[in-house]
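DM from R.C. (forwarded with permission)

"hey, sorry to bug you on a friday — could you get me a structure for this? deadline for the figure draft is monday and I only need the backbone to look sensible"
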Amino acid sequence: MRLLAILALACALLPAASLDEEKKAVRQASMDYIEALYNVQPELVERSVHPELAKRGFHKAKAGDPYREGKMSYEQLRDLAGRWNKDGKHVTPKSPKEVIILDMDDQTASVKIKAEWGFDYMHLAKYDGKWKIVNILWQSYSSR
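My reply, with the result:
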């Protein structure tokens, strides 16, 4: 009887453990995206972003300016990661680096990240067992 109780408990915990692992993988893919830009590591883009990425965003050149829209492909993002913080002037030890999982299931996830440039809403999907960012919508902080 005791063995059955232990087996039942183990089976009940198994889905929670795999969900925790999936959340960890989604969080890592999202963090790879931030760290690729912060640490000049385009290989992290290759690891975490789907090659058919759709990215668009809105930014202001300076406070008081209207927002401007920009689009970016996977290749452009990978190239940007190789040069954006190359001089070390864009990121400080206080630069935000936050990942918030908004929703997820076994194949798709929605995430919000906060970073030096602003915040991004991202959709991730699992391909061949690996989480990849497929869509990004971002904007610069409105107070800057």
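R.C.: lifesaver. Confidence is low (pLDDT under 50) at residues 7-14.
me: no worries. Residues 14-139 form a domain with the Nuclear Transport Factor 2; Chain: A, fold (CATH 3.10.450.50).
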